[in-house]
Specification:
By secondary structure, the chain is mainly α. It has one domain: Sodium/glucose cotransporter. It contains 20 helices and no strands.
Amino acid sequence: MLSQFIKSHYLLNPKSIIIIIAFYFGLLMVISFFTSKKNSDDTFFTGDRKSPWYLVAFGMVGAGLSGVTFVSLPGMVANNNFYFYQFILGNIVGYFFIAFVLTPLYYKLQLVSIYTFLKVRFGKNTYKTGSLFFLVSQSFGAALRLMLAAKILQYAVFDYFNVPFFLTIIIILILVWLYTNKSGIKTIVWTDTMQTIFLILGASITIYVITDTLDFSFSESIQNITNHDYFKIFNWEATSGNNFYKQFIAGILVAIAMIGLDQNMMQKTLTCKNVWDAQKNTLTYSIILALTQFLFMGLGVLMYIYANEMGIKLPVDENGTFLNTDNLFPNLALNHLGTLAGVFFILGIIAASFSSVDSALTALTTSFTYDFLDISNKSSKTKKKLKNLVIIMFSIIIFVIILAFSHSKGDVISLIFKVAGYTYGPLLGLYLLGMFSKIKLKDKWVPVICLSTPLITYLLGQFSITAFNFDFGFINIAVNASLTVIGLILIKK
């Protein structure tokens, strides 16, 4: 068998990984060189609105997957089965709302920062509050995604050269700055496409090596996945955080909030030539992403089967719950599956590292410069200077967040969506009220309401668990958004 040959004849070592990183970064710089030609002042922020929709759709899959999906999703099936797919099914419904409600609105207003809508609808304080919540949400999300990928690179290569973890983060951030600095979102649309390819290849090659080693045919692989104890998609237990209705509704709302109300993702969509292209992009992206996430969850089952068959002991607690499930994929790929799987895993995690932070930094820079610095009215020289200063500022913020959470345990994907429930809830409430009512607000009180509701949501969640053994789970975002809407109605004019 090919995988057996590879395992017996080759060894992936840290020096080899450095070569792989250099090769990958070289490809990114080539793309950056070609996309930086004939740029206008706004190219960094809008991509000149000339991106092919199919390219944007495919590239957004890489940004949507990131290192969290690449590493965390396969590992989490042992403790959570396929229940997360209920959430993904809800996402698809949310994408239809994005395509046919939000996207036409953004194009009609010709927005660069999507939070300008809140200024038009409610006022300056509301506008800055919405943007602030995005900045906090995106900074945390980008940092946690990058942290996961960086930890793996640290383990795989940088520990060998005695490079401290904080320096690993700095190196990655500098590399990202080098290829995004000139053309911003225009470059990212193309680099994300390449990164998506390597992310999917990383999973596909690993599946091939495992099935080859276990001598599974394609049909046998499908059968082993679907017949496995972990292949449980629907949970109807009312008190469970994985209950279908909680997950599905949360999936709809989180998709709307984390994609449709997210400068990072919508900035890519708004580089499409027109509304129809942007809508095709969103719907295509949703289908490809759902299929890819299913692929990664299936990979997770195969990896647990492989570990069991090969007698590889995985850490569990006294209740049989698997510990540090985020370590499953890197452990098997780098220590057990041979060079082929190891190389493509490293390429995948590099892609995940860069895709986690490049578009986030561009989106954070766009939102802050437009929403707080009014960059649209500045000269070209000032625009360039402010843009670079803001990129550095958010790089430092992401760096600090990573160091603060670097010792966290468990799967990072759950942590990200937990944080999102608190930070995106007020944004969702503001937009729902703005789009589906004619209510006018006392603008100066909006920040007070939006800052209060995440705290109230947290306290309600703790009370619900203690008093009723009822876990809000991912539906935190619905509770938060609802409380925001109620609070905003109380301050209507």
